[in-house]
Write a structure and sequence with these properties.
By secondary structure, the protein is an alpha+beta fold. 30% of the residues lie in helices and 21% in strands. The protein is globular and about 65 Å long. The structure holds protoporphyrin IX containing FE (HEM). Protoporphyrin IX containing FE binds next to strand 8, helix 12, strand 11 and helix 13.
């Protein structure tokens, strides 16, 4: 018997063996509660024509390509035997829901948050000022189109992914006016993921299962009820997608410049920008043991986005469930940054506005996140004033919701 909806308690981490989780996992998309872990991924971003054809088309697309959380865990057990299994996610922007015929009133009711309901419904473009985004840096596709949705396909086998991608494009062509492909690939060293500046990535990963060893979070920091699906046990999540280009040569020049200014090695200087060494080792695990920011600068990336405690000693944490894949094409590289959460305004929005881009957080005069905060400028580096510049550029993106599989099924009726 599935648990009664009232028995679904998301205010704490979930037991993955419980009936509650089994009920949720049957219709929740995969890659939400657990990363897909595959080497190759393609984002197919699309603009739909709208109306009944789009509803039927999306229902079919979801039926063919989307993997549930329950299927993902079976695939996980089979992965060694079958590297060609493809995981699929299908997300919709608020614009996409509108094209499907949902009214503003329905959307407000479905996606309203107690504190901030506008981030998803307004879309990323409307938040450019709050996010420090510069519209003229957008790539042509992102500048000219309003994205309605994305299909992410991920696979350990490049040829199998190509094949899946081809048939997905054929399906999308039936009801979309534009499709844009962003291929990504993990950068693996000794089997561990790295990002293009050369740092270990995907280390500090929050999780909602009560069995995960580190950083367990209440499930309601990730799962949001899919109120457009009939069943009360249907959940989804909000997704931030940002194509972030990384100027690796510029970053290395800045690191060299900082190393010269400090009389240190480039490796030590690079670690000050991130707060971790390139192999992932933290400069200091507990920031309260470094109250002056002398070991790990306050503006180092990981200290800005996870300061651990406020200056008055209160624990703080904004969980973001990161699912990025690096890309490299036409001499350019960077991250197809994806971050999931239950509340865009209170999680991604808050983190960017009040921490990453706030020059006086956590202490006055800190400046912004030295990896990607805006604006950049001169900052304090172990007592020396220096400007490392910024080498990450926002090229395009959108906010999406990953609905339940039950929602997509309901579109065909
Ligand atoms: C090109 C852009 C970016 C690069 C190169 C980058 C790089 C890194 C690296 C190397 C780490 C440490 C390894 C790890 O814990 O996974 C990290 C951690 C993290 N990053 Fe980023 N990042 C980027 C963009 C972002 C953005 C846009 C956000 C959110 C707005 C973000 C939020 C985080 C968070 C929350 C952590 C974990 C911090 C912790 O708990 O220790 N990052 N990032």
């Amino acid at each position: 018997m599935p648990p009664a909806p009232s028995a679904i308690d998301l205010t704490r981490p979930i037991d993955p063996a419980s009936d509650t989780w089994k009920t949720i996992a049957a219709t929740l998309q995969g890659n939400i509660a657990k990363p897909h872990g595959r080497e190759y991924a393609v984002m197919l971003l699309f603009v739909v024509d709208g109306g009944a054809e789009a509803r039927a088309g999306l229902a079919d697309l979801a039926g063919t390509f989307v993997t549930s959380a329950a299927q993902q865990s079976v695939q996980g057990q089979e992965k060694a035997d079958n590297p060609t299994t493809v995981l699929g996610n299908l997300g919709l922007s608020a614009g996409g829901y509108r094209k499907l015929g949902f009214t503003e009133q329905q959307l407000e009711k479905a996606f309203a948050h107690r504190y901030d309901r506008n981030w998803f419904l307004d879309g990323m473009g409307a938040k450019a000022v709050a996010l420090g985004d510069t519209p003229d840096h957008l790539e042509q596709f992102y500048q000219s189109k309003k994205l309605d949705g994305y299909l992410l396909l991920a696979c350990a086998d490049a040829a199998a992914l190509q094949q899946a991608c081809q048939s997905a494009r054929t399906a999308l062509n039936g009801f979309c006016s534009a499709i844009h492909e962003e291929p990504g690939r993990q950068i693996l060293r000794n089997g561990k993921p790295y990002e293009p500046f050369g740092f270990r990535d995907a280390i500090a990963m929050p999780g909602i299962f009560d069995t995960t060893a580190s950083d367990k979070q209440p499930a309601d920091t990730l799962l949001f009820r899919d109120r457009l699906a009939q069943d009360r046990s249907c959940f989804g999540t909000f997704v931030v997608y940002r194509k972030l280009e990384q100027d690796v040569a510029g970053f290395e020049r800045s690191v060299q410049g900082l190393a010269t200014a400090l009389g240190s090695t480039p490796g030590d200087a690079a670690a000050l920008l991130v707060g971790r060494r390139q192999d992932g080792t933290l400069l200091i695990p507990n920031f309260s043991h470094d109250p002056g920011g002398n070991v790990c600068p306050f503006h180092a990336h990981v200290r800005k986005v996870n300061p651990q405690t406020t200056v008055t000693g209160n624990r703080v944490n904004i969980p973001l469930y990161r699912r990025a894949t690096p890309y490299a094409a036409d001499g350019k590289q960077g991250l197809l940054f994806l971050a999931m959460q239950a509340n865009l305004g209170a999680q991604f929005g808050m983190l960017v506005r009040t921490w990453m881009n706030s020059p006086d957080f956590p202490v006055p005069g800190t400046g912004t996140d030295s990896l990607l905060g805006t604006p950049g400028g001169v900052q304090d580096w172990k007592g020396k004033r220096h400007d490392v510049g910024r080498h990450v550029t926002f090229r395009g993106g959108e906010f999406f919701f990953l609905p339940s599989l039950a929602f997509f099924r309901s579109l065909s009726t």
